[in-house]
């Protein structure tokens, strides 16, 4: 792995930072999350139309730029600095790879160019509060989240020329505004139950979408109620590759999430440093006290370590020679810990104002907590990574595998 960014990667980072910096004010973020869509439509038009971010990691034959996970992670890092709400993660990181990997030629041709242009946003809907499990981040995704014939979640029934879905999904990122939904549903009855993915139009009859109140307002969530909704099977009828495909998407998603968290942590640290340099106590800047220096030095080290892990995870997710599971979960755990630490110190070292609703510090703390609730927690990310590496099984290759994962 070459740790240095290429000229093209630096240009992607610069262009994204230039666009999002114009919307950097906290009031801009708060105003965006209060819109019906939950994000700034003008910012999304710029990210999609001017920069082409939704198609950054899609092949050129489908209207994309032909880049990889690393470029998408660098863009995510810049978006994380401002906590800018957008459908980029749900569309380009979760849904688009599934359309590309599992879709038929006709589905790819019809949907991916619209996704790449930003004209069509998409969202992934999995049963219950099990997004981390479904993506294989906190455990084997062949586990209980997929149903195994149990009641609950979403049930799929074959109909003449189509499928019908019935059920409810409670936590769908950007599910209230997405034009296309990828819904994980059970089919085959109790004895042969399996999980398949289905395409559902955002305006399909029988579909009720309700935006939920979330801890982190910058990641909008929705509840989907499917009442005999017409759906199209994603891909062919085999369905054998759904769970491995979800796990592969989980690797990519964890790398991008880690980069987002690193960007947010770096920004929280920078704002705290600026405050302690200006704020005076006992006739001297707060930042001149050694105890404060030590605390912020610890945050700096954590952010640097998390950035290294995130960059490696992004590179590994797109490297064919690197085995799956080579550090994405560990990188996400490190990044979430770094963001929580940076946000906590921001709240503390800003003094009384840091505890107020009007200050930005609470936005960073809620991002760390919200991502842990959706994709973690951090200790389960680490535990699953250790299990995959054989760290505690006594396997002769455990040491080498653990080294690769870290």
TrEMBL record:
Q: What is this protein called?
A: Acyl-CoA dehydrogenase
Query: Which Pfam families did the record assign?
Result: Acyl-CoA_dh_1 (PF00441), Acyl-CoA_dh_N (PF02771)
Which family is it part of? Belongs to the acyl-CoA dehydrogenase family.
Which cofactors, by name? FAD
Annotated coiled-coil segments of the chain: none
Residues in domain Acyl-CoA dehydrogenase/oxidase N-terminal?
A: 7-119
Q: Which GO terms fall under molecular function for this chain's record?
A: acyl-CoA dehydrogenase activity; flavin adenine dinucleotide binding
Database matches in PANTHER family: ACYL-COA DEHYDROGENASE, ACYL-COA DEHYDROGENASE FADE28
Keyword terms:
FAD, Flavoprotein, Oxidoreductase
Quote the InterPro entries the UniProt record gives: Acyl-CoA_Oxase/DH_mid-dom_sf, AcylCo_DH-like_C, AcylCo_DH/oxidase_C, AcylCoA_DH/ox_N, AcylCoA_DH/ox_N_sf, AcylCoA_DH/oxidase_NM_dom_sf
**In this protein, which residues make up the domain named Acyl-CoA dehydrogenase/oxidase C-terminal?**
255-389
